[in-house]
Amino acid sequence: MTAQLYLDGVERSFDGFKAITGLSLHVRKGELRAIIGPNGAGKTTMMDIITGKTRPDKGEVFWNEKVDLTKTDEAGSARLGIGRKFQKPTVIESLSVEDNIGLALKTDRSVFATLFARQTPAHADRITELLHLVRLADERARPSADLSHGQKQWLEIGMLLAQEPELLLVDEPAAGMTDDETMRTAELLRDLAGTHTVIVVEHDMEFVRALNCKVTVLHQGRVLAEGSIDHVSANPEVVEVYLGR
Ligand SMILES: Nc1ncnc2c1ncn2[C@@H]1O[C@H](COP(=O)(O)OP(=O)(O)OP(=O)(O)O)[C@@H](O)[C@H]1O
């Protein structure tokens, strides 16, 4: 199997505590993958390792088979096309929805370009395309502060997409969303898969079910189970450490 993202035998300790213990994860290009697991399972540390925020003590982490992510920092992984959406929003509330996307667009960021090249037709078309994708076409001119919590999360995803990532790492997107927003977010992430690789960390099992994708269960820093939601939900160990709680 060729994996776009390949982790094998990864270990990481913090002050003697093993947060990641022999973690292996293979994700194909264009795949949508959900990561679940109890608090402290190592989900955030795993994403920190993928993005180069944290270095593993041991193990292999490869991107597109050739690039060694253990030697890359956060800026480097972003340049490689690895985008991360944190739970905490970074939307600038005083700006319109459109301007938030515009600022995030991958453009020539030299001072000259910023001053003189804003809002070219191509720029405006790209903003329109992204706003449709993230279900915010009707909110284009609204101040971002007026958006609902769920809409802000979608805007945040739009801002990430503006950077043209190949892989999106999305941390608990459904937290705090209404049921309707949660289902629409699952739909949005399913739309993005195929043209992007998407890894979603989430606790909301209804949302994970709606993603309709392969699920990896982490526990004590390693993979406890992997497969369809029905497959992992039927695993007694998964029920014991996570689902039964
Ligand atoms: N920088 C750090 N220093 C010390 N311990 C850390 C550090 N980062 C993570 N840990 C520990 O490693 C373990 C795994 O944490 P991690 O945040 O990766 O889990 P998680 O699965 O994301 O949990 P949650 O669902 O609560 O966010 C935890 O016990 C945590 O306390």
Question: TL;DR of this structure?
Answer:
Helices cover 36% and strands 24% of the residues.
Explain this structure to me?
The chain is of the alpha/beta class. It has a single domain, classed as P-loop containing nucleotide triphosphate hydrolases (Rossmann fold), CATH 3.40.50.300. The protein is 36% helix and 24% strand. Strand 4 and strand 5 form a beta hairpin. Helix 3 runs parallel beside helix 6. The longest helix is centred in the last third of the chain and has 14 residues. It is globular. The two termini are 35 Å apart. The model has no long low-confidence stretch (mean pLDDT 92). The structure holds adenosine-5'-triphosphate. The site of adenosine-5'-triphosphate has 10 residues, from helix 1. One of its GO terms (cellular component) is plasma membrane. Keywords: ATP-binding, Nucleotide-binding, Transport. Pfam families: ABC_tran, BCA_ABC_TP_C. GO terms for molecular function: ATP binding; ATP hydrolysis activity.
Helix content: 25-40%
SSE order: EEEHEEHEHHHHEHEHEEHH
The CATH superfamily title: P-loop containing nucleotide triphosphate hydrolases
Number of domains: 1
**DSSP summary: helix tally:** 10
Unreliable spans: none
Structural class comes to alpha/beta
Distance between the termini: 35 Å
Mean pLDDT over the full residue set: 92
Strand content: 15-25%
Radius of gyration computed on alpha carbons: 19 Å
Organism: Pontivivens marinum
Pfam families: ABC_tran (PF00005), BCA_ABC_TP_C (PF12399)
Keywords: ATP-binding, Nucleotide-binding, Transport
Protein name: Urea transport system ATP-binding protein
